[in-house]
Structures are given as C-alpha cells and as structure tokens.
Amino acid sequence: MPSMDQQLFLIIGASGAQGGAVARGLLRAGHRVRGLTRGRSERGTAALPDGVQPAVGDLADADQLMVAFEGVTHVSVTLPMVFDADVVASYVDNIAEAAAAAGVQRMVFNTGTGVPDTATDVPAFETRRAAAAALQASGVATVVLAPLVYLENLAAPWVAGPVVREGVLRYPLPAGLPVAWLSHDDLAAATVAALTSDGVEGGTVRVGGPDVVTGAELADEIGAVLGRDVTYVEQDVDEFERGLAYAVGADAAAGVASTYRWLATDDGARSCGDWRGDACSALVGKHAGITLTPLHDWVRARPWHGWAEVTV
C-alpha cells in the first residue's frame, strides 16, 4: 500500500451525512481527502467538510469522473438515493472504469442499506446488490459494507419532535423487531478501517451497532436520557413515505419506504438477525483504540430538544 503522503482518498458522497463522516474521519487521521461535488458553485462546495479538496464530477459523466480520479489511491463510494436499475448501473460502470484507469488500490462501497442474502423485488436492495457485484468485479480491491438502519434517522424532526413533546417514538419498524442500530460515525470508522487496514481486501461485511434493541428498548433508552416515559409506536409506512417525500423527493422516498415494508415481513425479520456489531467491531478493531459507540452513549450525547424545534 502507498505511504501516507502518497495516498489520496476520494469520497463519493462527501457532501452527505454518511460520506461526510468518512471524510472527517480520514482528515482526523491525517489523510489527504478529495470530495466529489456536482458543481463549483459556493453551494456545491460549502456542503463538503472543511479540509476536503473539491472535485467537480457527475456520476453520469464518465469524462468528469476520470479527471476527478486523477492521482487517487483510495475511494469511498456512497451512491445517491436513486433506485432506477439502469441509472445506478451507469453510475457504477463509470466509477469502476475511472477507478481502474487511475490505478486505485482500495475501494469501499457503502450499500447504504442492508442487502438480504436472497433476491427480492425491492429496487433499493437489488440495485445495491448489483452495484456491489460490479465493483467487486472491476479489478479494484473492493470491500462492501452493508449497514441496516442508522441512529441519525431519529434526528428527523418528525421523529424527534414527537419524542420530546409527546413522549412517543414513531418509526416504521415493528415494535418487537431487534435491530442493530448504527451511527454514522461508527460506519465511518468501519469505512476508514476497511480503506486503510492491511489484509482487508474483498468481501462483504454487514455492519451494525454494538447494541441490538427492539423498538420498546430503544424508546426506554431515549426516555432515560430525557427523564420521561417514551412509548414506541410502529409508524404506518405509507405515512412515513409521505413525510419523507418532503425531504428527499417522491422517488427517493418510495425507494426507502419499500425497504421498511420488506423488513416488516417474516423474511425481513429473519434477515435483521444477520446484522450485529460483531463483524463491524472486528473490522474497526484493527485500529487500536477505536470502539463502536454504545447506544446509551449515543442517545445521551444527542441534542434532542434542538432536533425537536426544527420545522419542515
């Protein structure tokens, strides 16, 4: 692997919450980081974390990506919330070609959602399954990280607001379903470990948080921090989709909502059992002193009242 001063990390999705966390983690470790942005405008570059070099490029433009990849040795890939199979395939083909042409040493692909072992009719799963296979077949050493559900989803004002004001945690997962909720920072730590650790090459790692809890147990953790009773209520997925559409658009919301509908099935419930913190801990553990964040610590450190005051 090239020495640290020869390494350059390109973060695809650096302006987003997940990619931004990866960029900040790499910067803290002293690495040079480049972030892909779709334009040179102030708005396009302002979303990148401080210290990240902007690189203009659209995933649909192969020539722009070739330029953005120049000199890059490592790549972290988080795709936008697009679930059209042909569009996603074209993005991935462009990424794979640019990475191979640049001589990239290591690539980490964050599927952004848990991908079940068996095929489904859910585009959000199947486009990421195909993307992972294509990147792993690209000739560039690729590690696939497959998270399930993010703790930061609880920061949405339509989630945090009722928690603080009403003592009700509404989320579109069955109340009794055990889930290994994962934080963006822990996903970033796993990504940095997969990018920089010796001996980490191909394969797929299911990444989950260290604590597996039901909806009621999650509500109890939040209630203990807020000093009040919090009750978990399984949110209707159609209602969830309508609310999410205001934030991310109708197509993206429909794609995300379809994953929650599947998780509410018997197959989805069984699949949830495959996501635990063990594999993620083993990967992160290659870096001395890095541990996954206990659920209670994450909940205690969040600005719940500030989140509740945000309007949409």
From TrEMBL:
It holds the Pfam family NmrA. This is NmrA family NAD(P)-binding protein. It comes from the Bacteria. Residues 7-242 form the NmrA-like domain. The lineage of its organism: Bacteria, Bacillati, Actinomycetota, Actinomycetes, Jiangellales. PANTHER family: PRESTALK A DIFFERENTIATION PROTEIN A, PTHR43162. It comes from Phytoactinopolyspora halotolerans.
